[in-house]
Amino acid sequence: MIRRTRWLVVVGSCVALTMTGCSFQGLNSLPLPGAVGRGSDAATYHVEVQNVGTLESNSPVLMSDVVVGSVGKMTVDNWHADVEISVKPDVVVPANAVATVGQTSLLGSMHLALNPPLGEKPSGQLKPGSTIPLNESSTYPSTERTLSSLSTVANGGGLGQIGDIIHNFSAALSGREPEIRELLTRLDNFVGVLDAQRDNIVASIQQLNRVAGTFAGQRDVIERALKDIPPALDVLIKQRPQLTTALKKLGVFSDTATGLVNDAGDDLVSDLKSLEPALKALVDIGPDLSSALIWATAFPYGPGFADTITRGDYINLVAVFDLTYPRLKKTLLLGTRWGDENAKLIPAPGDPYYLNYSYNPISVGVAPPPDQALPAPPPSPDGAPPPILGPVLPVAPPPTAPQMIQNQAGPTSSIFAGPFGADAPPPPAEPAAAPPDVPPAPGGGG
Fold it and tell me: Fewer C-beta within 10 Å: the chain N or C terminus?
């Protein structure tokens, strides 16, 4: 009796421990006798499913609508289900297999199907212990969800709304068929233009992206500008009365100018018509005007002057610098206290009339006679005239122009250049008409 009581206590404890254990999830979680793919040699796989619906352990596993295994333990991992399945050892699971949770019939039990993707052939073999990831599994809509969706559509749902839409659309198009046809034609043309400009549109979007990138790189500058703009706007707001007054004055000026143009329109047209011949003449002399401008830039030498004087890396230049005092008085010092526009220029060596330069006694002024006569020179012992040791008359430079010198000297007369030496004979006397009112110079002359 005691032994039997002990046996009952042990069996009750085991049953209580089993019923209260954390791993126990009901009788359906235990392997049922006769379930497919539950042997010791069965291959085990794991399937990650987003929503298992009403799938239970011991549910069948199908391949090509044939039961090849059963569903084992199901756990939750990171908000999705991790389903363990057992498959018979002689079944080859394709490596590209995808898992699908669905119903065997409308009111039947749930199952898990392992099939290759739609339109693909099975390839390879999935190794035991492998896991079919979440992106290769799906769940068919349940019967309850399908009936609920159909009821929503049928009872005041989408079907009624579709009917109203079709009725209103038909009423809107009634009698407007040509306009709708033209609209469709234009829409087709518009879409064609957009398609032809596809490259430009893509390039514009890329440029816009580049501009957006530039703006993003200048974010600090834009932020500073946005901070500085409000004070500028405040200044504009304060200056609003002045700006308004300026715009009003501008409007008055515009009205006045418009009236002036309207009143003087005929005269303006007449002036423009009168200006037409002058413009035509200017157009006619266009080529000559161009040549004249070219010559004006190099006056008085001509446009080829630079090419003429330039020879490689040097320039031919002949220059005469006259720095004599009379020349300076007539040029550089003219207008000052030292200037004299009537200064007598003495020809320099090299001037054309330098060889004709002489002391002309005719151009020298005559002094009045002295009060007392000069004493006669003592006679020489031999009765010869006294020697001439200096100029007979005071001399002065003649005019500088060569033609004046030629006119004074005469074409055939000799040039008086004295003084003569003691042994030189006196120059031949030339007949000359002395001014009638000029008395003879004292001391005689030759």
Answer: N
The Cα–Cα gap between 98 and 81 comes to: 15
Question: Which H or E run contains 272?
Answer: helix 265-284
**CA–CA separation, 87 and 70 (whole Å):** 7
User: Cα 413 vs. chain centroid, distance in angstroms?
Assistant: 85
Largest CA distance in the chain: 213
More confident residue, 11 or 174: 174
CA distance 38 to 99: 19
Name the pLDDT band for 292 (thresholds 50, 70, 90): confident
Nearest to 125 by CA among 96, 155, 157: 96
CB atoms within 10 A of CB 210: 10
* pLDDT for residue 206 is more than 50: yes
User: Could you read off the pLDDT of 322-336 as tens digits, one per residue?
Assistant: 788 888 888 888 888
Q: Quickly list DSSP for 192-228.
A: HHHHHTHHHHHHHHHHHHHHHHHHHHTHHHHHHHHHH
For residue 63, which of 125, 143, 141, 134 has the smallest C-alpha distance?
Answer: 125
- Cα–Cα distance for residue pair 50/138, rounded to 1 Å: 7
Helix segments in 93-238, DSSP class H:
143-154, 158-173, 177-196, 198-217, 219-238
Neighbours of 398 (CB within 10 A): 22
DSSP code, position 386: P
Q: Are strands 98-103 and 137-139 parallel, antiparallel or unpaired?
A: parallel
